[in-house]
Amino acid sequence: MTETPRIDIKILDKKYRLKCPDDQKDQLLKSASYLNDKMIELKSLNNSISTDEIATIAALNVVSELLDCMQKEQNIKDVSDTIKDIQHNIDNSL
After folding, report:
1. Beta carbons within 8 Å of 5's beta carbon, 6+ residues apart
2. Which end of the chain, C or N, has fewer beta carbons within 10 A?
3. First to last CA, the chain
């Protein structure tokens, strides 16, 4: 049985070695880079807060962004469903 490959990432100058399947490597690298950028941004705003606080605030901000995207996706689906219903009604009335 083949062992899952490992990948090195760096967040706030701390290195992590994580198991990551090859087909998820790019996504993990992008995620780590995005999180690192957010944490650096927070640290630059207040250099006296702890790494734990930075990580918590960054996580909350990223989850908030995710929830916003999920809501927008749901709104798009709702509009799409409404358009399909209207098209169906038009087709039935012709």
Report:
1. 19, 20, 21, 22, 25
2. N
3. 62
Instruction: Report pLDDT digits (tens) over 40-49.
Output: 999 999 989 9
Would you report the helix, strand and coil content of the chain in percent, each value rounded to 5?
A: 70, 15, 15
Q: Name the β-bridge partners of 27.
A: none
* Residues counted in the chain: 94
Residues 6+ apart with CB under 8 A from 70: none
pLDDT tens sequence across 8-64 = 999 999 999 999 999 999 999 999 999 999 999 999 999 899 999 999 999 999 999
Q: What is the pTM of this model?
A: 0.81
Q: How many CB atoms lie within 10 A of CB 11?
A: 19
